[in-house]
Amino acid sequence: MVRSSASRPASAAALHRALAVLGAAPTLDRAHRSHGPNPEDAPLLLGILLAKAELDAAVIADPADEPPDGMTTLIQGYNTLICSEEMRLRLLALRLIRTAFDISLYEGVDDPCTPAAETAVMAAANMINARCLAWHGTGPDDQQALATALRSAYQFSRSTLEDLERARRQFTSA
Q1: Is 37 within 8 Å of 16 (Cβ atoms)?
Q2: What is the reported pTM?
Q3: What's residue 146's pLDDT?
Q4: Residue 49: CA atoms inside 13 Å, Cβ hemisphere, count?
Q5: 13 and 7 in contact (C-beta within 8 Å)?
Q6: Confidence at residue 106, expressed as pLDDT on a 0 to 100 scale
Q7: What residues contact 67, with CB distance under 8 A and at least 6 apart?
Q8: Distance CA 98, CA 117 (A)
Q9: pLDDT tens, residue by residue, 87-143
Q10: What percent of the chain stands above pLDDT 70?
Q11: I need a surface site. Which of 41, 45, 65, 67 has the fewest CB within 10 A?
Q12: How many Å is the maximal CA-CA distance in the chain?
């Protein structure tokens, strides 16, 4: 299979068509979108497409399978569009931020483990951003962004340790 080397993000209309083919397109409000999706709909449509892809991947590529052929092929397919280490790191950081958001949805009042998981993931995302900026950044703005990413990673790491200590006290003193 040969990949397309699309250099621009897909338009909202193209994303909506792809979702329609996959049976996951949202119903458009024809009163506001008489000519199809608007350009500002692209992030929402990308999110739906991403969720559809991840849901399908969860069904098709089970890492517990022996041998994990589906998982291996899934990763190979994913890597066909990633043309640089910088892009790979950027995607990884975005995936971690999405993961932290997803973790935060399950946070309970007396739950010290979920905040620890959330802040640990955010520390990792900031460290990946810092690595990318350290290796690929060239200007003064990149140096400032690097300092910010490192400071954020440090703060998230400290929060993770505090949450872990709270969890340890809560679960071992019972």
Answers
A1: yes
A2: 0.76
A3: 96
A4: 18
A5: no
A6: 83
A7: none
A8: 13
A9: 899 999 999 999 999 998 887 767 888 999 999 999 999 999 999 999 988 888 999
A10: 95
A11: 67
A12: 62
Asked whether the beta carbons of 42 and 10 are under 8 A apart, the reply is yes
Structural contact between residues 13 and 37, judged by C-beta atoms closer than 8 angstroms = yes
Q: Are 160 and 120 in contact (CB under 8 A)?
A: yes
* Token pair for 8: 């621009």
In 3D space, the residue among 51, 41, 19, 137 whose CA is nearest the CA of residue 86 turns out to be: 137
